């Protein structure tokens, strides 16, 4: 009899827990949809992501197809964004370039989130590692981001993977500092002291109890890193130190158009608009997430 009562109690508890989780998800979706910045940012990012994925369907030209007779043609019904100085279709190159630029930005955001989280958590929990790791981060942050990225790419060579490595090295210290500051607050909470008294291991405390409480500021910071990575990659490619030709990216399309900027404006306008849209969408999305995930911001707004 007692066993049946216990089973029923557990079933009711699990049912109630699932209902509460469902209500929380519905409440979060409603709050997200009511946040104009997050919605607009997500629409822009979804649009750019879909155009990148559907590039082979949206254009009948390849980004490498050169037709000398069609060089520097203005936008028309055949070439929507015009052609470049090699007769290549700019619309096709912009779409395929979005695959490269967004892939680089996403890869940098993921890599910096993993490295920054591990470094930040270890620095917050271990005092000795804090002095070592944070001094390394301070040293990396002392250099201007674009100059340090150029130096690393110059050593490794112009390649998309090397660009990701360079930008990850440049931006990881910032993410590590954000995670560290959030983890230091959580580390001083009473329940963390209770876990230590109960004999919980350091790794369990760090990754099971501190890490979940640093996810919100980490996600917000990663959206910022994503946007900055797109800008720096475009700057590197524009300077000739990023994605090597003839592979298209928004940056090296701008690089090709800088010599004919007054006679063939379309070579710089359209990839520039894409960069602006991507950065704007990421910033709006990040600001919206900050309002949703940061309780202090919500209270201030109220």
Can you walk through the features of this model?
By secondary structure, the chain is an all-alpha fold. The protein has one domain: MetI-like fold, CATH 1.10.3720. Helix content is about 75%, strand content about 0%. It contains 13 helices and no strands. Helix 4 runs parallel beside helix 12, helix 7 packs antiparallel against helix 10 and helix 10 runs parallel beside helix 11. The longest helix has about 35 residues. The termini are far apart. The model has no long low-confidence stretch (mean pLDDT about 85).
Features:
302 residues, mainly alpha, MetI-like fold, 13 helices, globular
Low-confidence stretches: none
Q: Assign the CATH topology.
A: MetI-like fold
- In one word, what is the shape? globular
CATH superfamily: MetI-like
Task: Indicate the structural class.
Answer: mainly alpha
Beta-strand percentage range: under 5%
Task: Quickly name the level 1 CATH class.
Answer: Mainly Alpha
Count of helices?
13
SSE topology string: HHHHHHHHHHHHH
Main beta-sheet strand count, sense and barrel state: none
CATH A-level architecture: Orthogonal Bundle
């Amino acid at each position: 009899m007692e066993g049946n009562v216990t089973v029923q109690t557990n079933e009711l508890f699990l049912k109630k827990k699932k209902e509460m989780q469902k209500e929380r998800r519905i409440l979060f979706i409603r709050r997200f949809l009511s946040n104009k910045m997050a919605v607009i940012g997500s629409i822009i990012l979804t649009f750019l992501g879909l155009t990148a994925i559907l590039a082979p369907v949206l254009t009948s030209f390849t980004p490498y197809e050169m037709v000398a007779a069609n060089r520097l043609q203005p936008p028309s019904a055949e070439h929507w964004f015009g052609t470049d100085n090699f007769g290549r279709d700019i619309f096709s190159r912009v779409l395929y370039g979005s695959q490269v630029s967004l892939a680089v930005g996403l890869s940098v955001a993921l890599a910096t989130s993993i490295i920054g989280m591990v470094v930040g958590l270890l620095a917050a929990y271990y005092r000795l590692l804090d002095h070592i790791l944070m001094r390394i981060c301070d040293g990396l942050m002392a250099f201007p981001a674009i100059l340090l990225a150029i130096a690393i790419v110059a050593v490794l060579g112009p390649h998309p993977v090397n660009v990701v490595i360079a930008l990850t090295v440049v931006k990881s210290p910032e993410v590590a500092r954000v995670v560290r500051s959030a983890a230091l607050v959580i580390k001083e909470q009473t329940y963390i002291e209770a876990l230590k008294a109960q004999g919980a291991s350091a790794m369990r405390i760090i990754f099971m109890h501190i890490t979940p409480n640093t996810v919100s500021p980490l996600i917000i910071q990663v959206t910022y890193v994503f946007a900055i990575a797109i800008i720096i990659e475009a700057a590197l490619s524009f300077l000739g130190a990023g994605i090597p030709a003839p592979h298209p990216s928004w940056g090296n399309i701008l690089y090709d158009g800088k010599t004919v900027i007054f006679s063939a404006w379309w070579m710089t306008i359209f990839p520039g608009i894409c960069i602006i849209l991507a950065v704007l969408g990421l910033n709006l999305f990040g600001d919206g997430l900050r309002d949703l995930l940061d309780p202090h911001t919500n209270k201030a707004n109220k």
